[in-house]
Amino acid sequence: MEVLNIELFSAFLLASALLVLMPGPVVTLVIANSLKHGTRYGISTSLGANFGTAILLIAGAIGLTAALTLMSELFDIVRWVGAAYLIYLGIKEWRSSAAVLQDAKANRRKSFKRTFIHGFLTGLTNPKTIVFYIAFFPQFIDAGLPPAPQVVIMTASFIGVAILLDGSYALMSGRIRPYLMDAKRAVLRARITGTLLLATGIGLALARRPV
Fold it and tell me: What is the pLDDT of residues 122-168, one digit of tens each?
């Protein structure tokens, strides 16, 4: 028995990749944590973010119509929470002193857990997921096939694509990090990551609710 329309699924994978590659809260945080702590911490951020995304998508899969309505109604709340969190992280980075930045190695174990939590909170409050679920997800479901298997496969595929591409951002950013390790450049690194986080938080605050 056929459970998936291959043409629609292929288009879905392409749309998923394009959405993940678009600069947004998760990508920004992955890059920021990769620059600050290293590649593996960017990957832990990605895993946390996609765990949060998975919760949203699974909630939607359990009750698609009700979840979409609720997610749409909560869009502004989610947006402001996510924006405030990113702006807070950005300001914190901007205020970091060279001494604090140079002492970061001593807190690496703590940072791994912290970056996962940062990623999780960002993924859980990422409006891109809501927009995707409302505007794109239903378009790739074949009405002539059982919906449940399609939703499960598409949800798992989206998370897989997101982890892969976010991991690529972490790898690329981590390669730049060694060039920003001395005291003066550590401050520059903090300014770069702080600016990225602030800009994304402000952009998120200015986002509009999908219709």
Answer: 888 776 676 666 667 778 888 888 877 888 888 899 999 999 999 99
The Cα 140–Cα 95 span in angstroms is 45
pLDDT at 34 over 70: yes
> What is the rounded CA–CA span in Å between residue 101 and residue 190?
8
| Structure-block tokens of residue 50 | 């996609």
CA 84-166-15 angle, 5° bins: 95
Measure the CA–CA gap between 166 and 163, rounded to whole angstroms.
Answer: 5
* CB neighbours of residue 96 within 10 Å: 18
Rounded to whole angstroms, the Cα distance separating 136 from 145 reads 18
pTM of full prediction above 0.90: no
What value, to the nearest 5°, has the Cα angle with vertex 113 and ends 108 and 115? 85
Q: Which of 16, 205, 39, 45 is nearest to 117 (CA)?
A: 45
Closest listed residue to residue 129, CA positions, set 1, 37, 205, 22: 22
CB-count exposure of residue 72 (10 Å: 0-12, 13-18, 19+)? middle
| The two structure tokens encoding residue 154 | 């598409």
Q: Report pLDDT digits (tens) over 43-78.
A: 999 999 999 888 877 776 676 555 555 665 666 777
Amino acid (one-letter) located at 208: R
The DSSP letter of residue 73 is H
Give the separation between CA 129 and CA 49, rounded to whole angstroms.
11
